[in-house]
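queue> pop job 88
queue> type: inverse folding (structure -> sequence)
queue> payload:
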């Protein structure tokens, strides 16, 4: 009896590590009931998980007949009743280095300036740069965690009136961290559900470039209002964006694409008003038309933007021209939510 339970635990290790399995009951060595909890409560996920687990236990030859396996899934309506987040919006890109984190930062601060309560979750496991952009890189997760009667609660850091947490806080500054799928899910789950976000109008999530475990975990853990894509007009960047959009359009995980922002659109040449379209002109706009997603606006390539990122001061706070561009784009995003 114990042996078969151990075998099941071994093959379902990933889901157990992600804290989804609540209990495994084995009866007479040939019947098993697995109790799972699932959030968000979507029927298609419930069906898929049931079929996947049954097939997997048969494939691994632990059972030969699916009638011996019973899966009981409890749908969790809300993981954490301490907070209420009205809109979760993720910022994604096809490639790294196109300005996704810079834009997530300045959209978050623009929303604050517009009077909203805002959180920013840096989920970019490959290069968590939000702490640098908000000048809070010396913080770590240990400083943010309070354990009370066995319950963990994380408090976000508040910088420029934005409540911030970063997956980068799980590692020390400059230290590499190797994530496996279930670890990513667990960390993300803590950052979303075990965090005292309070009341938020918006939670902006800065995703890693491309597609991967974080994207899928986020879709499992939350109900996203939509995705905002950032790209340059360069052909290579756009072909990667196409793949990212493809993932969000897969039927089983469909999330609305709120639109695409063109970053580093042009350079203004020194001593003249002439614009140089370094990555190509209107590439993102044409792409948006072709694949039928809203175009949200363009941001020029400016030394001030780079400098402020490096200084850890959101540029929208310091420069009116750039602030107006970001406010315009942020308003366009909000319009898509209505
Ligand atoms: P990603 O999150 O896509 O990897 P980042 O936001 O980290 O990209 O930006 C990469 C670099 O480019 C940073 O140094 C940032 O300051 C700079 N950058 C981003 N957007 C602009 C812009 N519009 N003008 C000038 N520099 C920019």
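queue> result:
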């Amino acid at each position: 009896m114990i042996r078969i339970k151990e075998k099941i635990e071994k093959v379902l290790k990933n889901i157990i590590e992600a804290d989804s399995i609540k209990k495994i009951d084995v009866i007479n060595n040939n019947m098993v009931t697995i109790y799972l909890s699932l959030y968000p409560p979507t029927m298609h996920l419930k069906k898929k998980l049931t079929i996947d687990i049954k097939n997997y236990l048969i494939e691994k030859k632990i059972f030969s007949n699916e009638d011996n396996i019973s899966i009981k899934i409890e749908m969790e309506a809300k993981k954490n009743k301490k907070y209420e987040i009205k809109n979760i919006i993720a910022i994604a890109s096809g490639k790294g280095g196109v300005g996704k984190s810079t834009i997530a930062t300045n959209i978050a601060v623009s929303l604050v300036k517009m009077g909203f309560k805002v959180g920013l979750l840096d989920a970019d496991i490959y290069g968590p740069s939000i702490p640098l952009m908000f000048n809070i890189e010396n913080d770590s997760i240990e400083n943010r965690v309070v354990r009370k009667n066995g319950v963990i609660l994380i408090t976000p850091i508040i910088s420029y009136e934005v409540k911030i947490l970063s997956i980068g806080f799980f590692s020390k500054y400059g230290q590499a961290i190797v994530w496996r799928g279930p670890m990513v899910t667990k960390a993300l789950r803590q950052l979303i559900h075990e965090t005292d976000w309070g009341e938020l109008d918006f939670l902006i999530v800065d995703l890693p470039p491309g597609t991967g475990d974080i994207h899928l975990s986020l879709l499992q853990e939350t109900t996203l209002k939509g995705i905002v894509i950032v790209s340059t007009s360069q052909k290579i960047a756009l072909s990667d964006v196409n793949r990212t959009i493809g993932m969000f359009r897969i039927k089983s995980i469909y999330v609305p694409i709120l639109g695409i922002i063109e970053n580093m659109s042009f350079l203004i040449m020194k001593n003249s008003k002439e614009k140089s379209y370094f990555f190509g002109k209107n590439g993102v706009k044409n792409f948006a038309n072709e694949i039928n997603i809203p175009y949200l606006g363009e941001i020029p390539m400016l030394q001030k933007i780079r400098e402020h990122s490096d200084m850890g001061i959101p540029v929208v706070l310091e420069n009116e021209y750039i602030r107006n561009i970001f406010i315009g784009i942020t308003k366009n995003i909000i319009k898509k939510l209505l």
